[in-house]
Amino acid sequence: MNKAGDTPLMIASNNGNNSCITLLLEADEDVDATNNMGKTALMFASLNGHSASVLLLLQAHADPNLEDKRGITALVRASRFGHDTCVRLLLTAHANVNVRSKGRTTALSLASRHGHANCVRLLIAAHANVNWANRKGNTPLIQACKYGHHSCVRLLVTAHANIHATNIFGITALIEANDKGCKECVAILIEAHADAKAKKK
Questions:
Q1: What's the CA gap between 136 and 167, in Å, rounded?
Q2: DSSP states of 32-43 as a string?
Q3: What CATH number matches the domain at 116-201, 3.20.20.150, 1.10.3110.10, 1.25.40.20, 1.10.150.130?
Q4: Which residue in 79, 117, 168, 170 is a FRET match for 5, CA 20 to 30 A apart?
Q5: Domain-by-domain residue ranges, the chain?
Q6: pLDDT at 193 over 80
Q7: Do the Cβ atoms of 57 and 45 come closer than 8 Å?
Q8: What is the dihedral of CA 48, 54, 60, 65, to 10 degrees?
C-alpha cells in the first residue's frame, strides 16, 4: 500500500493489468477496499476505460455503487471520460444511474457536458433522470448546449428533457446554444418549440 492508500489491486486496475488483477483476486485481496479518498479498484479501472478489468472486478462481485469521499461512483467516472463499454458493463451490474455526487453531478450531466453521445444514449436507456440539475442549476441539456454537443442535445430532447429549464442565472438551453454559436443545437431546440424570446436575467 502506498501513501495514498492504494492497494496492489487498485494499482493493477489503474494500469489495466489484467493478469495481476486475476492473481490478486485469486489471492483473496479485498475487491472493495478503499484508499484514503474512498476510491476502489473498480473506480480506477472505470476512470481509465479498462473494460476488461472492469469485467474482471465485477465478476469478483465488486460493488458498482460504492462512492468515494466526493460521492462519485465508478459509473460517474466512466461517463465523464466517455468509456461507453465500461458504462454498459456497470449498468448491467445494476450501477445506480441516478446517483448524485456532493456537487449534485450525475453521470448523465457529465457525459452531456463532455459530448459523449454513446454514454448519453446508454444512460437514457437505463432511465437516467434527464432533468436533474447541478448546483448551478444546469441540466444535462443546458450543459450539452453550452459546449455545443448537438448529438447529445438531440438525444436529450428526444428523451423529453425540459427545453424551458433555466439555471440559477436564468439561462436556458437555447441561450447557451446561441452564445456558443451552435446552429445545430439551436435548430434542434427551435424545432422542439423552445422559447426564442427568452432572455437572460
A1: 6
A2: T---TTS--HHH
A3: 1.25.40.20
A4: 79
A5: 1-96, 116-201
A6: yes
A7: yes
A8: 80
